[in-house]
Amino acid sequence: MSSSLSSGSFQTLDFLPDNTVVIQDKIYGKHTISEPVLAELLRSPAVLRLEGIGLHGQTDLLGITHTVTRLEHSIGASLLVRKVGASVADQVAGLLHDISHTVLSHDVDGALSKPGESFHEVQKSRYILTTELPQILIKYGFTDLKPFDEELYPLVEMPAPHLCADRLDYSLRDAVAFGKLTIEDARRVYDSLTAFPDPSSSRRLLVLQDIDLALTYARAYMECDRNVWCNPAHAVMSRKVGQLIGDLVKRGALQERVLWSRSDREFWELLKSKVDSQGLEIIKYIEKGPHAEDYLRLPRGTKIRTVDPDILLPKAEQPSPLSVLKPEFAEERQEYIRARQATSTLTNTDLQGALPLIARGKVRDLYDVDEKTLLFVATDRISAYDVIMENGIPEKGVLLTLCTKTWFKILTDAIPSLRTHFLTLDLPPQIPESLRPVLQNRSMQVRKLKILPIEAIVRGYITGSAWNEYKKSGTVHGIKVAEGLQESQAFPDGPIYTPSTKAEQGEHDENIHPDQAAAIVGEPYASTIASLSIQLYKAAHEYALTRGVIIADTKFEFGLDPETNEVVLADEVLTPDSSRFWPKDSYAVGRGQQSFDKQFLRDWLTSEGLKGKPGVRMTDEIAQKTSAKYREAWERITGGSHQI
């Protein structure tokens, strides 16, 4: 016998006796799924569990927003890659990309995620092993289990502002559900979708073929961001529910496994039975719906979401972004980002007396936690040519902090004897609750050290000031190097150590010979720093190459442990502020390279005659493009798509 299931507002499933599954989707039409692996996955309890989980958490549950389920979204993502002719593996990856989402998933992520991580992603491997899914994939030849990693499938997951099946599906469903896009236009978007250059290329990309339709969709996407995904009242409700869940889990009153064994509705009733009287009052408050005061302010740091669809016009050899083909959209998008940016950058911190301020650097504000600990807060300030810009770079402080945390882990794994000053991304207990959303993910507690007054620069490739010196004298920092080098060439004898002085803020660092560094910090510290810096660079360079990134040069800072006098790696490491990152796939000797760092800003300052001048305010376009460079560096190097 056949059976049917409504998988959400837009979709029904019919399970037929011949093991095929017929999907009726109000946007994407009718699809008969006969591929055995897909048909069996669609019948599996782990996939069908998603029918009880909404995309919008408690606002879906309480009828405040339209219910779009994780199941119909997952099926929708699979149908989109199917539509463009993608492989069964791509379709499986689309179907399983949300498989580890919990009940009230964004609330739970907000409550249980550690700094720089997403709870459901961290738990994904562990959860999958409790299900029947690995056996199903192995049964049909997917012994490597790669479809569980959607990041390997660019049609399924692709960094914004490009299209991908995940982003396109949830936005089309929400845009229709909330009246931002007609269902007819949503169907036309689906019809216009194709893959470029083809669905099996390693560089495959989802593109639209109708420029006017793409403009309609991109505007609807911004409307969803403004009024649906970033609704302040919904954010307030989510945070309150998350706090209740987090408290119960920490107290042991709620077991984590429950988060994957119930529907949103079942879990909501369980939550009400577990909280204390104060928690129950909060739930009753939430159940009455959004309150006027909840709409007043969107929490700082809320992600700005826009798309810039790639368009493949008739007879065009390559797709072009909508913003290039429609300059009016480029300005419209930038204006929207500007409006949202006003509350999304942090250029100064004020801890309201919770901790004493020790210093403000070019980027970081330093606070005293206790006799052994400092709090480093990375703001969104940016400096170039030793001058701090008047405005900030969106998300910069968060990206620097998460990038540094990731590199500390990579480097200590590669060099087990390495000591760093990093302690934790957790905020000290003295920080008021009201400031925590602003400071989280951009702050780290570190050991107090006696900082050594040199910058430990390692260069693997000849570029920048080193190239300029080499052209004049055949040296780099006074060190004789091989003759006949071309710009951007790797040093034939391996990376070289080229230290500089550590100048006061507003002053210029001075390039010095390693012998001068030894005179400044003394031995054995100078030799240890030189040797360790080369080790660190080599380990980082080797890792980055596997991520498609070349680290041309970088800067380390070191301090001494006040108790043992050991040399300790300090400050930030291998960020776009302290390093020069090049894309490996476009690298070529004999010219300057594209970069994922603030070279973009430096070039703009130079071209505008503003190099080294104080009081410069970046244009909004430069600030946003620089932010995109920093984010691309983070995503390329770490593989992360952390929702900042």
Automatic annotation (TrEMBL):
Keyword annotations: ATP-binding, Ligase, Nucleotide-binding, Purine biosynthesis
InterPro entries: HD/PDEase_dom (IPR003607), SAICAR_synt/ADE2_N (IPR028923), SAICAR_synth (IPR001636), SAICAR_synthetase_CS (IPR018236)
Source species: Petromyces alliaceus
Sequence similarity: Belongs to the SAICAR synthetase family.
PROSITE patterns named in the record: SAICAR_SYNTHETASE_1, SAICAR_SYNTHETASE_2
Pathway(s) where this gene product acts: Purine metabolism; IMP biosynthesis via de novo pathway; 5-amino-1-(5-phospho-D-ribosyl)imidazole-4-carboxamide from 5-amino-1-(5-phospho-D-ribosyl)imidazole-4-carboxylate: step 1/2
GO CC annotation: cytoplasm
HD/PDEase domain sequence ranges: 66-180
Its EC number(s): 6.3.2.6
Name the record gives this protein: Phosphoribosylaminoimidazole-succinocarboxamide synthase
Class of the enzyme per the UniProt entry, highest EC level: ligase
Alphabetized PANTHER family for the sequence: PHOSPHORIBOSYLAMINOIMIDAZOLE-SUCCINOCARBOXAMIDE SYNTHASE
Family matches, as SUPFAM superfamilies: HD-domain/PDEase-like, SAICAR synthase-like
Molecular function via GO: ATP binding; phosphoribosylaminoimidazolesuccinocarboxamide synthase activity
UniProt superkingdom: Eukaryota
One GO-annotated biological process of the protein: 'de novo' IMP biosynthetic process
